[in-house]
Amino acid sequence: MTVDRAGLERAAKIIIRAAIASLAVTATSAHADDSDDKLPSVLPEVIVTAQKLTQTLEQVPVSVGTLDGALMDQSGATGFPDLQGYLGNVTLNLSPTGGDFFIRGFGTLSTNAGFEPSVGTVIDGVFYGRSNFLSVFFSDDERMEVLRGPQGTLFGKNSTAGVFNLVTRSPKNINGIGGEFVLGENGQRAARPVLNVAFGEHWSARLAGNFSRDDGVLHNTDLDRPEINVDQNTLRGRLRYDNDRLRADIGAFYSEQQLNANDFQLIKSSAPMLALMRQYDPDVEANLDFNLSANVPSHGETHFKGANATVNYALDGIGNIDQWALTSVTAWAKQVMESRDIDGDFSPVPVIRDTLARPAPFSQYSQELRIGGHDDSIMGFGSGLNFIVGVYYYDSTFNSNDLFQLEDLGAALAYLTAAQAGNPDGNALFRIGGVPLAEAAYPVGRLVDIAAPLLTPVIGQRQAATVTLDQETSTAALFGQMEYFFVDDWAVILGARVGHEHKKGHFTSQAEGLFIPLIADQQDHDSYRNRSENEFSPKAGFKWQPLPETNVYLTWTRGYKSGGFNALPLNDKNLEFDPERATSIELGAKARLLHGSMRVSAALFDTNFKNLQVSTFATGSGGAAAPVFLNAASARSRGGELELNWLTPLPGVAFYGSAGYADAYYTHYPDAPACAVPSECPNTNADGTTQDLSGRPLANAPRWTAAAVPSFTTLLPGGALATFAVDVLYRGDRYVDVDLAPEKLQRETTEVNARIVLGSRRGNWLLSLAARNLTKEVIVDQVLDEPLAPGNYAAARSDRGRVLSANLIFDI
């Protein structure tokens, strides 16, 4: 693939000239406003809402990783997944059609819409039931917070692994325009305008847009088109009213996102399979590069919209309580997946595709009402109380529908023949003569196509199956948490959440033709299920806070992730699964040191999961296999995190570092899905269809993660600033699929980024020139077996190679 470097260089020159012009215009005023010629020597205070109260980072007894909006703007990141490396024990993948979050080794893949996430997504205080809502909000952000470990007491169900808490920029009481312009390699460009308006003393509004385009880094040699070329058009608005006691914040958003959605490329293919595929695409290859070959013109398109209102009324002084407030959070959101296509065999051979039979909507409504605040004592006893008590209601509906279709019967027969000819554990008859039989696969398939009209009365006109799930969910909960300082420095932490959830599901599966039931164990059915669950998520612990900017804590927490329904109900077996629960002990410490120039936090944890929800395959009659989702495992993760921010004594030299260690493994999983080639996996059971993964690591769980970010900032003439920074981001070995086959091990990676940032000290303009992945690390986030072709593998590559970008940010 060629890159228009000349065009990129011209665009970069234009941006640089614009920045120099801005520097010349603002130099005098900047010098006048920034007469202090010294760089900061004290770290700014970080205010977080990790416990639904406004607290400094050092006061929160939870392991919290934070990134501010400035780093997000300057890093050259094109989305939230590019930021995961800065935070220990965090793994993140996100697209318009799905999101996969993992914290401390635990998480849930979005391969089945019936699985709800293990990491909660909270944006401006609103919980979203689908992680990909986050893709709407990658611009105009104040900070992101990652809360590690179970957070069920305050955030409810589906936060057993943690919470991703995003805070966007709120309206300011000024009139101004601003925004960001981005240019990058592979045709990346974005315009993200911002308009802020003040209406008198109490009213203000903010409108932010994100209009981004990406030419895609992958090329499909069969269809001769780019892939993963995300286009996004997003508008977000906020209106705020603020007086002494009352603050009301009303927000709304709308976003359209689409892309060519083929992202799996073959990385290993047998000689017979490769020979067959080259009959359809002579350029097909089995290498981990930036080319793939798929015959299905896969397209993904999702529309998002939503609105929310947060009202906060101060009750200070009422009832002799020093500081407390009543807060109401009302929200509605909807996403409609207009299209989502999958080439089921990842190849140019027209075998099987999975697409939507019709648009798939998800909608949610939530209402939270809480009281929280601080009092100096309880009826004169103790030394202080931080508290929060509330009620929560959540309602959602969604429709999942999949159309599985055999594209070409002759091609499918040729595919199966070639697959078995190259299967190292396959029937020996297919390997006699090896290559000659493989060469016969394509002409035999063509003969079947010619004879298809004669076979139609027997096998049916179309080989397809449509499966659907319509689901309704309602949840209600009471929750509360307090920190009670029974003496000046020591507090007891107590909290609990009690909830009830009810789900209704309607499943259908309807086949046309003969072959889908044989291949996928499909059975026609029309089924209904109802399930009710009770949730109890307690928290207890102690906190020692000898200074306002220091705390040491020990907590015990439990989290709950709701059960649900299989959204791929090919048959009427395994239609539902039970909830999973997590129990965690955490010991942590946080402090601001060296007169405020250093911030350090550390945590040790031990988390156990029971009834872990997993995906596997069930073998039916005739060897057919269908995906099922059930509770089949228990797991444990032990380790810790360390984060450090330091403004060193050397003028302008700063350092940020993070490290995470998580030994995440199955404690009991005796019937895990076997590898497609059982002989490659030493723990395969005698039946050859399962394996014992007890004691083996969880997928998507690197044992070590680390980041080191040294930077140097200097003053330029006129009071402007120049910053030079390098990011070294390390992730250890990790498996990227559940069966832990050797081909699915992603080796350790060390990604190096660099950037030069020029800007005004007032913050009214900034230019960032970034280079990401200078080491050209090759990174995949998923490797799958090619269906029905044992020993063949396809991977989804997540890196873009080395990427140069320029960001111009201004605020007038």
TrEMBL record:
<keyword id="KW-0998">Cell outer membrane</keyword>
<keyword id="KW-0812">Transmembrane</keyword>
<keyword id="KW-0408">Iron</keyword>
<keyword id="KW-0798">TonB box</keyword>
<keyword id="KW-0732">Signal</keyword>
<dbReference type="GO" id="GO:0009279">
    <property type="term" value="C:cell outer membrane"/>
</dbReference>
<keyword id="KW-0410">Iron transport</keyword>
<dbReference type="InterPro" id="IPR036942">
    <property type="entry name" value="Beta-barrel_TonB_sf"/>
</dbReference>
<dbReference type="Pfam" id="PF07715">
    <property type="entry name" value="Plug"/>
</dbReference>
<dbReference type="Pfam" id="PF00593">
    <property type="entry name" value="TonB_dep_Rec_b-barrel"/>
</dbReference>
<feature type="domain" description="TonB-dependent receptor-like beta-barrel">
    <location>
        <begin position="297"/>
        <end position="774"/>
    </location>
</feature>
<keyword id="KW-0675">Receptor</keyword>
<keyword id="KW-0472">Membrane</keyword>
<dbReference type="InterPro" id="IPR012910">
    <property type="entry name" value="Plug_dom"/>
</dbReference>
<keyword id="KW-0813">Transport</keyword>
<comment type="similarity">
    <text>Belongs to the TonB-dependent receptor family.</text>
</comment>
<keyword id="KW-1134">Transmembrane beta strand</keyword>
<protein>
    <submittedName>
        <fullName>TonB-dependent receptor</fullName>
    </submittedName>
</protein>
<dbReference type="InterPro" id="IPR000531">
    <property type="entry name" value="Beta-barrel_TonB"/>
</dbReference>
<dbReference type="InterPro" id="IPR039426">
    <property type="entry name" value="TonB-dep_rcpt-like"/>
</dbReference>
<dbReference type="GO" id="GO:0006826">
    <property type="term" value="P:iron ion transport"/>
</dbReference>
<feature type="signal peptide">
    <location>
        <begin position="1"/>
        <end position="32"/>
    </location>
</feature>
<feature type="domain" description="TonB-dependent receptor plug">
    <location>
        <begin position="57"/>
        <end position="163"/>
    </location>
</feature>
<keyword id="KW-0406">Ion transport</keyword>
